[in-house]
């Protein structure tokens, strides 16, 4: 049976309760192995130990809804083999499409890659049954309890869909690996585990479940399925002396995946499903996505151009023409990730630079000196900080607007004095990190004052049948030799921390868009000794230190 779909298992990772991924290559753990209960596959007359399915499981604190762990894996390891896929998705989604299940699906195109996921939630009762049965078949002792803490063992797979001998689509996806078994040559053989009412002896299994389970095991790289037959609302009397209570597994059966299509093929009527139909379903779906989802989420349709630079002096006036600092040779650490980053101490006292020109003083002085760029009067004059706050829907922002000679001046509104301390803004970490990449030599000290180098930008934002013309200024931390802008950010654990993606990534994105920054340099830092295991054995990284840098496009 040749499906013309080539599946390759490229890695494994452990998804923890916080949806982080720990790959096998980074001290991760392989999926759980089947236990001795597989002996009941050969000895069906023996009584299977009781597996009750109606036990109450702890409520999950976090559920994976947006491929968080796979995205984290990609952030850590990059694209598998350096090859950018056409699609990134999940085993569950591929199974659903191939078997023509009905689901609400979300598609997002980023950087030319289509990210596809299911939006609707699975049946919680069915999900709990599978969690319990998987634990039953892999637990190491009878005293092991079902944790259901959100952790899961996942495989990373590549699927290549062929049309003849030509590659049509390249898909990267992840999926839970229920159980494995070591082969004599040391390889891992995957097993798909599932629980169904009545099991394979019931016609309902083949009519309603067989297609779904075939594709689930296919995309999971599992040549074998182990099906738990369960009771329903009443007990099941298997024999005169053997009765199983309601909501319990009474039998396990092994099914060879590649034999399943023949079980639903009949000589006198159309088969229930065929492998070729499943492949066609998947091909049509992927082609439809590629044809109809044209605009990338990265294409904001907001056009930003740099129209000038100036140095903001301490008195908030503008010294026109001075350019931002250039990146130094330390850029090698984000250009070559294989280089070990020297620990950068962030626990340094930094002078508070002050609040800056909250009333657009330096930009207004630039306009006074240079006039409107290209003699074009804008619709709005504001700051990069204000645009970023609006774009990422900062909830506590208050705005102040003033219209003068047909131009709207827009700024963030502050109550009271503008003298909140640097520690409240946590800005000193970013200043120290940025200085590391822009200092002239290793001996140059970080000097902080109210001055900064800014760029003047013009943004064109589409609106109904026209567009807004916005003139604004914002600090440019550094540029390279081609004058490309770079932004800097420090975050606890960097890209490996879901908190960054959930709470800070949106702001970082819009900050780079409105700052016309091609790249964001993100430093992963430690916390204090009490709260960060990386500061203790075996890592022993100093507290409040950057230990890794990532380049985010």
UniProtKB/TrEMBL annotation:
Location(s), subcellular: Nucleus
Cite a GO CC annotation.
nucleus
Q: Which cofactor does it need?
A: a divalent metal cation
Q: Which family does it belong to?
A: Belongs to the DXO/Dom3Z family.
Renumbered to this chain, the signal peptide range is: none
Which species is listed as the source?
A: Caenorhabditis latens
Q: Which GO terms describe its molecular function?
A: metal ion binding; mRNA 5'-diphosphatase activity; nuclease activity; nucleotide binding; RNA binding
**Name under which the protein is recorded:** Decapping nuclease
Q: Which InterPro entries match?
A: RAI1-like_fam
